[in-house]
Amino acid sequence: MNKHLFTITAVAATGVVVFALAGCAGGGASAADDKTLRVAMGSPGEAQIRVWESVAEQFEAANDGWKVDLNFQDDDMYQTIGLPNLLNGRNAPDVYFEWAGNRLATRNDDGFVADLTPFVEDGPLTGVLEDDQYGAVTADGRILMVPHIADVTNVLWYNTEILDAEGLEAPTSWDELLEACDTLAADGIVPIASGNKDLWAAGNWLAHLVSRVVGHEEYDKALSGQADFDTPEWKTAFGYVEQLAQHKCVNESVNAIDDNEGAQLFFQGKAAMHAIGSWLVSWAIDEAPDLDFDFVNLPAMPGEADPDSVIGVITGYVVNAKSGHDKQEKAAEFLALLSSAENTQAFIEAEAVPVTATASASIDERTIRLNSLLSEAPVVISPPDTGYDLDVADAFYRSLAEVLGGRTSADDAVTQLQEQTSK
């Protein structure tokens, strides 16, 4: 067993999560003699895990007597029950991965977020990031998280060769998108691949679409429970999702396959386009190295409120407020080390692009353009499942899936969504 790694076994049949801990000091994270720094996150993949293990080794070498335990969980498990169980467990993490937005605010309200401001202003984190990079993770003058990755969570990727062969340009307007769907479907090509079994894949894309129509302020109010979904504007927005179904824009299996299977349709040349996030670049380079592909942002919607909005997330690492002050300072040192030039380059080579990275020959030019798209966007839309209450996000995603799959009309879906979120 790697000395930096917790092993975790999930017993699905009983819902019990059993933790087997490697190298843990007893007595919990607050014990005075505890010199184990615990770090938790969803699994970032083998290449990035190797970088994390290297950072842990660097930290241990520089801090005599300290050990780092890295806890990598299944992503879905971590996002739902995994992290709450860890935070409320006997050996809670001192550093943990989180999304900016509602999730971070919830952790803060629950008392699991340390104020990093002193460490940024005059401590280990001084100068690690530019001041403006903390804007989205600051509340009431308190810096709550060290940003690590900024992702555009949805654009429209397209297969250049297929569009060229069909005499099509990458669609930049709604009418162009529907026309492309008609042409491609008539020739037996899936216009837009999507694997929405887990609801978020198409849900992210369609959430951005409807936000463009109702406007980001109304989108935020409705998902935050401060306004109704059941309005003419929301029904109009859902009506565009209904048009996607009517024009056979997505594979018939859209709600039956997962995001991996959806991507494979695109990688294998069975679909002309694919709506997904910035991580597709490294994924495609690994699994479809000969694929000639590029992206456009969401095509412009008729009469839209936010024509240049981008949907994206900032993720990073939080220091647990329940860890003692010494632990918090060591956690800040660890996060500063994580963001060093050497480790930033290692993450780039592992196909991740930290916010500390600058444009270089080792970063794919599409990734550079995506980062610019996000940083220059006048409006950044938060995905429902990271920016808002998960129950509301789930209801929203299910309603969108029903319409995209042709099972429910736009009007009925909005009415049902209102009923579900008003309970």
Mind explaining what this structure looks like?
- The protein is α/β, with parallel strands linked by helices and 423 residues long.
- It contains 17 helices and 14 strands.
- Strands 3, 4, 5, 8, 13 and 14 form a six-stranded mixed beta sheet that branches.
- The longest helix has 17 residues, at 46-62.
- The radius of gyration is 22 Å and the shape is globular.
Low-confidence stretches: 1-32
Please work out how many helical segments DSSP would assign.
17
Mean pLDDT: 90
User: Could you tell me the radius of gyration in angstroms?
Assistant: 22 Å
What is the chains' assembly state? single chain
Shape: globular
Task: Note the main attributes of this structure.
single chain; 423 residues; 6-stranded mixed beta sheet; 4-stranded mixed beta sheet; 17% strand; globular; disordered N terminus
Short description:
The protein is α/β, with parallel strands linked by helices. Helices cover 43% and strands 17% of the residues.
List the helices and strands and how they pair.
Layout: E1 7-11, E2 16-20, E3 36-42, H1 46-62, E4 67-73, H2 75-87, E5 95-99, H3 102-109, H4 117-122, E6 138-139, E7 142-143, E8 146-152, E9 155-159, H5 160-165, H6 174-186, E10 190-193, H7 200-214, H8 216-223, H9 232-246, H10 259-267, E11 271-276, H11 280-287, E12 293-296, E13 310-319, H12 325-338, H13 341-349, H14 365-375, E14 380-381, H15 384-387, H16 390-404, H17 410-421
Parallel strand pairs: 3-4, 3-5, 10-11, 13-14
Antiparallel strand pairs: 1-2, 5-13, 6-7, 8-13, 9-11, 9-12
Helix pairs in contact: 1-12, 1-13, 7-8, 7-9, 7-16, 9-17, 16-17
